[in-house]
Amino acid sequence: xxxxxxxxARIRRSAKAEGDRAANVRARLSGAAQPxxxxxxxxxxxxxxxxxxxxxxxxxxxxxxxxxxxxxxxxLAEELRNRNLPAAIRTGEDPAFxxxxxxxxxxxxxxxxxEPATLSRAPLAMAETGTLVLASGPENPVTLTFxxxxxxxxxxxxxxxxGFEDMWAEFRNRGLDPRTVNMVTGPSRSADIGQRxxxxxxxxxxxxxxxxxx
Amino acid sequence: xxxxxxxxxxxKQNAREALANVNIxxxxxxxxxxxxxxxxxxxxALPEFDDLRDRARDLKNHVLGHLDLYLEHYEDQVTKAxxxxxxxxxxxxxxxxxxEICRKAGAKTVNKGKTMISEECGINDYLEENGIQPVExxxxxxxxxxxxxAPSHIIAPAIHVTxxxxxxxxxEKHGHLDKDRPLDHALLLAEARKILREKYFEAxxxxxxANMLVAETGQSVIVTNEGNGDLSQSLPRVHIxxxxxxxxxxxxxxxxxxxxxxxxxxxxxxxxxxxTFSSGPKRDADPDGPEEYHVVLLDNGRSGMIGTxxxxxxxxxxxxxxxxxxxVYQAVGGHAYGWVYPGPMGAVLTPSLIxxxxxxxxxxxxxxxxxxxxxxxxxxxxxxxxxxxxxxxFERQLTPGAARFGLGVWRMVAxxxxxxxxxxxxxxxxxxxxxxxxxxxxxLPLGRGWTDHRDFPTPQGGxxxxxxxxxx
Lengths: 214, 472
What we know:
The structure holds 2 protein chains of 2 kinds.
Chain A: H1 3-14, H2 21-29, H3 45-58, E1 62-66, H4 72-82, E2 88-91, E3 105-108, E4 115-121, E5 124-126, E6 131-135, H5 142-147, E7 148-156, E8 160-161, H6 164-173, E9 180-184, E10 189-190, E11 198-199, E12 206-212
Parallel strand pairs in A: 1-12, 2-3, 4-7, 5-8, 7-12
Antiparallel strand pairs in A: 5-6, 6-9, 10-11
Chain B: H1 11-20, H2 22-29, H3 31-44, H4 49-65, H5 67-80, E1 84-88, H6 91-104, E2 109-112, H7 116-121, H8 123-129, E3 133-136, H9 139-146, H10 163-173, H11 185-202, E4 205-208, E5 212-214, E6 219-224, H12 228-234, E7 238-244, E8 248-249, H13 252-266, E9 274-278, E10 292-298, H14 321-324, H15 327-332, H16 343-354, H17 356-359, H18 371-375, H19 382-395, H20 401-414, H21 417-435, E11 440-441, H22 448-451, E12 456-457, H23 464-471
Parallel strand pairs in B: 1-10, 2-3, 2-4, 4-7, 5-8, 7-10
Antiparallel strand pairs in B: 5-6, 6-9, 11-12
Helix pairs in contact in B: 4-13, 16-19
C-alpha cells in the first residue's frame, strides 16, 4: 500500500462523526456553516473607509486620500520627494497605471534586488483590520509587494470591504484565481533581535496607501 | 541539538542547567510579560473573541472527524491548480521526498521560511549531509541556524539569545565585513536583511511551512511578520510546502475564523503583517512566482492520535500562547524541553510523536495551574492530556522509584481522613515554628527544590479542613 493509502485508511478507521460523513463534508464545502463576523468587520460607507485608514495607520502604514486616480502621479511625486527617494517607480502592467507620470520615471517589470520604491494596486481591502488584499499576476507582480524598500499601494474606496466574509464573497464573485493572495497589514517587522520591534525585516520598511475616491 | 537526538528524557537536568544559565535567565526575564499583556489587550478589544475560540474549536473537531475526506478533496484541488501532493508517513519519508525534489531542481542552496515541521523532520542537517545548503530566512531562525541550535519558542525561535550574543555572532559569521563596524539593534537587522536579500536571488528552491491548508481551494496559507516566507516562495524556481496533515480547514471563511484568533493569541496583533494564500505554480501569464509547487504532507504519528484521548491536541494552531503563559516555560526556556516543541503544547505533543520513553518526562514539567488551557485559542485541555501521559508513564513503570514511593505514601495518607488531618496539622505547626513568626520561609529542609527559587508562605490560621468545619 502507498503512504497515501496507509494514512487515509488509518484515519478512516478512527475518525468519528455524526451522520453521513461524506454529506457533512459536501455541505460544509458548499458554505453551509454560518460564519461569525465580528462587529468591527461590519461597517459601511464613509465609516468603513475611515476605519480602514485608522486601522492601517495603527500598524504603521501611512495613508493619503485622493479624489481621483488622475491625482496619483502628482501625489506620488510629492511622497517620493518627502521621503528623499529618487523620482522613479516600479509597477506591473495594471492599466490603472497607464498615465502620464510627469517628472517620475516609471518602469514596468518584476522586483529586482534593490528596489527603492514600488507601486501596486490592491483589488480589495478589509476595513476590519486595515488589510490590503493583493492578487499576484502580470498586472501586479508579487515581488513588487516584498522587494520595494517603500511600497506604495492604490486602493479604490469602493473596493474596501468590511471584513473577511464580504471580501471573500467579492473575491469569488470576480472569479479571481491568482497564484498568491497576499494580505498585507502594515510594513514588514521583526522582534527577533533582543525582543525589540523594528520595521523593515525583509519586506518593505514603509507602506504608503493611496485611498482613491473614484 | 538536532532533531534526531531529542534530550527530552533528561528534562530535569536540562531545567537545572537553564536555571543556572545567566544568558537564558536574562532573556527569559523580559519574555513573558510582553506577550501576555498584548494578548490580553487584543482579547479585550474584540467582544466576539471567546465566541470565535469556541467556533475555532468546533471547526477543528469537525475537520478531525472528516479528515480523510477533506484530505482527498484538498489533494484534488492542488492537482487541479497544477501542484503536487506528496504523502509522507514518517519524518524519514519527508526528508527523502524533499531531497529528491531539490536534486531534480539541481539545487545548491535552499531558502527556508519558518517551518516547525522541517525542524521536526531534521531537514537542515539532512540537506547539508547531502551537499545542499539550507538557509533559514526568518531572522530568529537565521540567528539560531548560525548558532547551530534548535528554536526555543515556536514563534520567536531566538527568544533566548541576547543582543550582545547576536552582535558577537554576526561579527564571527559575517567575516567579510569590517570587524570594527558599529552594531546596534537597527544595524544588526539591516546587516541580516542585506545578506539574506542576496540569498533569496541565489536559491533554486524555497521551502515554507503552512499555517493552514484550505480544502475548498487547495491553497496553503502562511502567516509571517517579516515577509521572508513570501520572498522564499516567490523568487526560487521551485516552492515546497511542508505541512502536517491536521492543518486542513474546509473553506476560506473557516480560514478567516482561525486567522481572527491566531495572531491575537500569538502576539496580540489583529492580523500578522503578511497572510499569504498560495495555490499551484505561477500562472502562464505571470512574470514571477515559482514554476513548480509541491506539498509534502506529513503524518509522523498524527493519524494515530485520531480517535484517542490525544486527538484534541491536533487542533493546535501553533500560536505559542500556552508557553507564553506557562510558569515552567518562563523559568527554564524552550531548550530544556529537549526537542522541537516546548511548553505545554510540546509536553503533550512530544510523547505522541517520539514516544513516551523519550518524551514522558515533559508532561511532568507542569504545576497544573491551568493557564495554558485558559488562553488556548483552540481550547485544548492541555493539563488533562498531560495527566493522561502521567498515567501512562506510571502504568508502564517509567516513573522513577522515588516518585512512585512518594505517590504510594500520599495515597496511604490521603485515603485515611484522620491521618491526613493529623499530618496536615503537624505540618502546619512545624512550618510555623520553623518560620519564627515571619510570613515567608526562605529556606526549608527537604524543600530546597522550592525555596531555592522562591519563598514558601507560612501557613496562617489552621488547616483548610479545620476552617471548612468552622465555617459550615
